[in-house]
Design brief:
Blueprint lengths: L7 H4 L12 H44 L1
Length: 68
């Protein structure tokens, strides 16, 4: 370990640098999972916005019916 600065691998107690070439498939898997998570979050946000909009519209229609 170098006394000047501490690297992440030193902090995680790795004695040697891991061979990341053996885990190339992991990048694609993580990318696909993150993309799926982004789609899920976008769908969830749009659903919540649609629900709030529908509730506000229903309440406005109810007020209009009660005023007549």
């Amino acid at each position: 370990m170098n006394d000047d600065h501490v690297r992440l691998l030193d902090w995680l107690c790795f004695r040697r640098c891991p061979d990341l070439g053996k885990a190339r498939w992991l990048g694609g898997l993580i990318g696909a999972l993150l993309f799926g998570l982004a789609l899920f979050l976008a769908a969830m946000v749009l659903t919540i916005i649609g629900l709030i909009w529908a509730l506000l519209r229903k309440s406005a229609e109810d007020k209009a019916l009660h005023q007549n």
